[in-house]
Every structure is written in C-alpha cells, then in structure tokens.
Specification:
With 334 residues, the chain is an alpha/beta fold. The protein folds into 2 domains: 10-55 and 160-327, Rossmann fold, CATH 3.40.50.1100; 58-154, Rossmann fold (3-Layer(aba) Sandwich), CATH 3.40.50. It is 45% helix and 15% strand. It has 13 helices and 10 strands. It has helices at residues 10-20, 33-39, 57-74, 90-101, 116-124, 136-150, 161-177, 192-204, 220-227, 250-259, 268-282, 288-298, 324-327; strands spanning 29-31, 42-47, 82-86, 105-111, 128-132, 153-154, 183-187, 209-215, 262-266, 308-313. Strands 1-2-10-7-8-9 form a 6-stranded mixed beta sheet, sandwiched between helices. Strands 5-4-3-6 form a 4-stranded parallel beta sheet, with helices on both faces. Helix 4 links the parallel strand 3 (82-86) and strand 4 (105-111). Helix 3 (57-74) crosses helix 7. The protein starts with 9 loop residues before the first helix and ends in a 7-residue tail after the last helix.
C-alpha cells in the first residue's frame, strides 16, 4: 500500500502471468545486427505489436476481466456482466475483445480526436462507443456517466493494479528469455506498461535499469519523475504517438518513484524516423508509440555502448494516413 491506494507487486505480475496462460500470446523476441550497429548496443525487442488486438493492452485488460469474472462466479453470478473504460484506442479494443471472449458487455468512452483506425478496431471488437472531448477530465466525466447509467465495472486503461500487473507480464517473459539484460525500456503514456515492466525487472533482474521514453510534447511523466511531484497533461498534446497522450496515473507514478531509473523524451521527427528504421531493420511496422523508445536509443539516450537492452514494442496498430514515409509525403531528413 502507498497512502490509501493499492499497489501491485512482483507477486501480482507472476500471478497475472499464470492467469493469462492460454488467453494471451507469448509474443516473439527479435534482434537486428543492423540496428545494433546503428546504436552501439545489443538490443532485443519484445514484439507486443503481434499480441492479440495488436498491442500489449490485451494483457492488462484480460487480467482485470478474468479477475472480475472469478469474483462474479464466487458471488454465485451476482451482478451485471458489464465493463467500461475510456481509451484513445488500444485499451478499448483490448477490453472489448477480452469482454466478448467471456460474454461481458463493454462500453468504451473515446475522445473525438482518436485515431480512426483504432476507433474502428474498438467497434469491430464489439464495444458500444461513447464519444467525448479530448483530455483526461472529459474522458473521466463521460465514463462516470456511463457507469451511473449501466452499473458497469470500470477497468481503467492504466491506473488499475490489475491492469498494471497484466502489462508487466510482457517484461516478465522478456526477462525469462534474456535474464542478462542491463537496461529495459518501454514507452510512457499513462504509465501502466512501464510500471508493470519495472515490477517485473525488480523481481527478475534487480540490477537492470528501467527507463521510460515519451514524446517531448507530452512529457508529463518526465516532468513528474524528475520534479518529484505528479503533474498532469492538460488537453490532448499534439503528438503523432496518440497512445501516449494521457497523463501519468497515480499508481504508475507511485511505482515509478520506487522502481524506475529514468524517463527521457524525444522529438516528433525522431519518432517518425524511428518507425522507418524499425521497418528497415526489423521488418516490423510499429505504431508511433512503440517507436518512442527506439528513437531514444537512436539518440543515445538509453543505455551505454555495448550494453544489453530490452525494448517493449507496445503495439502495431498504425494509421497509415498520418505516417509521412508510408503516406507518400516527405518524411524527416535522413
């Protein structure tokens, strides 16, 4: 516990991994000698872009849903089988898919500036959509209205201990395969992935440094981490990494303070360039959020020469129309 909030620990990540067996994919880990040469490090990539629903979010959503279903069964089936959340895309699609798999109804509050590709994925997964203005406050208000109307159980996209523990299972698998990693990195939006990854690292490889990466124009996690006080991100920051527009959550921030070693930032141009390099070197098309730690590696901001670095590639749900080098527009300078 930290104050009056519950916080997950390494044991919760292990329990989530056991619970999720058979429900989530054990995604592959890839390496690229060409990329290693670029950055002067030995890098392995955990490919959550190949996870069900195209992102790591399926882990946390499934872990929460399975626990809700178990609690309902223990109560002899009492209560409605309805779940709700707010999401800019990947969490909503993941929760909808997880809910459909066990027969739950799912509502997702979506800001009107969300990626059309991701909104379509949420709808295709069977969710009932509610639109709202961009920004955390309008999203939370709309979610509260849905809960009041439907009696839904809330599964927050990142500020939920069950979700954080589920997200940490990707790093748990990566460290099981590569226990000698010296640095582990992941992108930061609300902070659930990095917080869960840090818990996994502290349990599996205590000496491994944990470093988050986020866009310069959505740098609330970096400012919170380095300033010692959690700060929010007003509105919807203008980053191509649409999955990282949310403000860092209370629980992730508390875990950052205990277990994360650094949070760095990168420019928008660097994010686009990192997407292009991931496609060239890894033959993987990753979404902008996934490319943020790649951009930080290319800039020499994560790890040192020769170090073994693990990267969580968070997702692969790309809106091709907003990516310059894929949409036929001029990209960044090479």
């Amino acid at each position: 516990m930290s104050g009056d909030i519950d916080l997950p620990d390494f044991g919760d990540v292990v329990a989530a991994h056991d619970r999720l067996r058979g429900h989530v994919a054990r995604t592959p880990v890839l390496a690229s000698p060409r990329f290693d040469e670029r950055v002067g490090r030995r890098v392995v990539f955990k490919c959550e872009n190949l996870q069900h629903a195209g992102a790591f979010k399926f882990r946390g959503a499934s872990n929460a849903l399975l626990q809700l279903e178990a609690a309902r069964a223990a109560a002899s089936g009492a209560g409605a089988r309805v779940v709700a959340t707010h999401s800019s895309g990947n969490h909503g699609a993941a929760l909808a898919r997880a809910a459909a798999s066990i027969g739950w109804r799912c509502f997702v509050v979506v800001p009107h500036d969300a990626s059309p590709v991701k909104v379509a994925a949420i709808r295709a997964a069977g969710a009932e959509l509610v639109t709202c203005e961009p920004g955390l406050a309008p999203r939370e208000a709309a979610l509260a209205e849905v809960v009041a109307r439907t009696g839904a159980e809330v599964v927050h996209p990142f500020d939920d201990s069950r979700v954080i523990a589920g997200q940490g299972t990707a790093a748990l698998e990566l460290l099981a395969d590569h226990p000698q990693l010296e640095v582990l990195t992941a992108p930061v939006g609300g902070g659930g992935l990095l917080a869960g990854s840090a818990l996994a690292a502290r349990g599996m490889a205590p000496s491994c440094r944990v470093v988050g990466a986020e866009p310069e124009v959505a740098d609330d996690a970096a400012r919170s981490f380095h300033g010692g006080v959690r700060v929010g991100m007003p509105g919807s920051p203008p980053t191509i990494a649409d999955g990282l527009r949310g403000s860092i959550g209370v629980r992730p921030y508390a875990l950052f303070r205990r277990h994360v070693d650094d949070v760095v930032t990168v420019s928008e141009a660097a994010i686009v360039e990192a997407m292009r390099i991931a496609l060239e070197d890894l033959r993987l098309l990753v979404e902008p959020s996934s490319a943020v730690p790649i951009a930080a590696l290319l800039a020499g901001r994560i790890g040192g020469p020769g170090q073994r670095v693990g990267v969580i590639l968070s997702g692969g749900n790309v809106d091709l129309s907003v990516c310059p080098f894929l949409a036929g527009r001029a990209g960044t300078s090479r």
